[in-house]
Structures are given as C-alpha cells and as structure tokens.
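User: Predict the structure for this protein chain, please.
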Amino acid sequence: MGIFDSIKNAFGKGEPEADVTVSPSQMLRNAGIDPSGFKFSFAASSMTVSGEIADESQRQKILDVLSSAAGITAVHDDLAVVAPAPSEPVETPPAEAAAPEAAPAEASEPATEEHEGRTYTVESGDTLWKIAEQMYGNGSKYMKIFEANTNILENPDRIFPGQKLVIPDLED
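Assistant: Here is the predicted structure, written as structure tokens:
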C-alpha cells in the first residue's frame, strides 16, 4: 500500500472492504439448522425462503438467522409446517419393515452394477449433508453422493425415506 492509498483510506475514500458474502444455506448451517430442504429466491433487498419445517420454533429461528444477512431488509416466509409422523409408524407393512430395520442404516450392502461402493437407505430426517458426514466424515462431500444417484435424485435437497442411495468410494 502506497502513501496515496494511506491518504485515501484516512479520508474515507479508499477502496471498499472486500465483499464477503455468506449464502443463506451456510448461514443456516452455522446456526445448526439443516438447509437441505429449503429454497431461496431474491429480489432487490429481500429474500423468500420456502420449504418444509417441523414446528413453529424452527420457523422463527430460520427467519431470525436469515434476516441478519447483510443487504437483506425483508425475509418473506413461505415455509410449511409438516409433522414428521409419516416415517414413525413403521408397523404399516410389517413384512417389509422388518428387513430394513434388521440392518442399521450405516450397514453396507452389495454395490449396484452401475457404481462401486456402499448403499444407504434414507431415513426420516436425513439429508445428503448428514449422510456424507456419516459416511465420509465430511458433509461437504454430499455432491459425490448426489452425482452417484442422479438416476433417482433430481435435486440434492430432495431425498425421501426409503430411497436406496449408492455411496461411492472417495478418490484420494
């Protein structure tokens, strides 16, 4: 930094600070909220968040976190409260329920002919991020799982209980 830069900075006419933008998903992750089921859209200085949540307290926490984003003056709420009940009554098809629960979700199964690796059966509350943390020790590797399963997944934020995902081996 030269002398003229020092003078500019002293009088407030220096270069603006670097723009450090944090995505809404990352803001929610930092607050301990899994963002995988949410969609965000932006207009001017406002943001709209949509998706499904478990209860009203989660709604308020999400809105509080997102409203603290730099440059956002309004957060529009399109969140829907959905009860997590559908996955709990496993007793509906007893013959089918016994087989998946006999082996824990972390258990490896034979690989499909398309990909090498393990498989994982999605359970209620799972996200690709959580599965990647469990399988690889690093949630940011979730796109590896998504890419290996594009035949059954259209969106990395949309996985459903009962889906069998291929968990590819990581290349070093």
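Confidence is low (pLDDT under 50) at residues 86-90, 92-115.
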